[in-house]
Amino acid sequence: MFNSPCLVQYPFLFTRHNVATMKTLILCLLLLSISVLAQDKPQEKPIDNANPWWLSKNTLAFRSTRSGKADIYSVKTDGTDLKLLIGSPGDDYPPRFSHDKKHGVFMTDRDGDFEIYSVAPNGSDQKRLTTNKGSDWDPSWSPDGKKIVFMSSKDGNWEIYTMDPDGSNQVRLTNNNFKDFSPAWSPDGKKIVFGSERDGETDLYLMNADGSNQVDISNAKGFDGMPEWSHDGKKILYSSKRDGDFEIYLMNADGSDLKQLTDNAFGDYYPVWSPDGKKIAFHSDRDGHKELYIMNADGSNQLRVLK
Fold first, then answer.
1. What is the pLDDT averaged over residues 235-254?
2. Does residue 115 have a pLDDT over 80?
3. Based on the domain organization, do 19 and 166 belong to the same domain?
4. pTM recorded for the entire structure
5. Do 153 and 228 belong to one domain?
């Protein structure tokens, strides 16, 4: 006999002398069934909202799992006007747009592995740019819109490459036995910052746009990655695990004058500047799952976008 609260509280119900109490028995059994079903019901997975990118001064694009897979949505910075921007059967990551805001590039695994696609600002006119073996990630435009820098495992190891806007003329810029990732072009087009696992640490490196003169500029224990240039090219924003968990830092382009902008017991990732340089969007797991946040450029006034 199974153990039921009804049996404990009303054992006399199961004697043959209490037929009149059968209705109560049925009610107890019904309540027990409901309790068992509730316990067996799987817990709903929290919705992740992550990887923000500014579409305009007051609008963000971001990656969300609200549909059960990762699609791209747009939302106002006050949390209103939520819209689906890019959806597919696979996982999609937010587009990064050229400086004139007319052309975007994003990565998706809709065709089996991660490839890079171009897209119009409204989410239309999606075209596949790479068809490599392995995966292609983190595309970013040159300031003049003539080149796209990205990371790829097509040659067996994650390296940094450039290509033309139509996907042609792919040129390898880094060549070593370690992972190079997250490239971003400087506003003047002369430099590219990227993360690398070489030299036993994961640091940020700076190189010329042709791949020459690769120099470690963060040089710290822990993980430094997800770099983003300030609009004037003087500062680099990034996420680092140097103090035990991922926080957001700001430094000069040569690695000097390091400042920590976030400080909590959770992870803060993928910081990006607003078009006017006064705000920084990022995502954080401080709520138990990934959520979008915006803060002032000095790290103050950190506010969650979607409530």
1. 96
2. yes
3. no
4. 0.84
5. yes
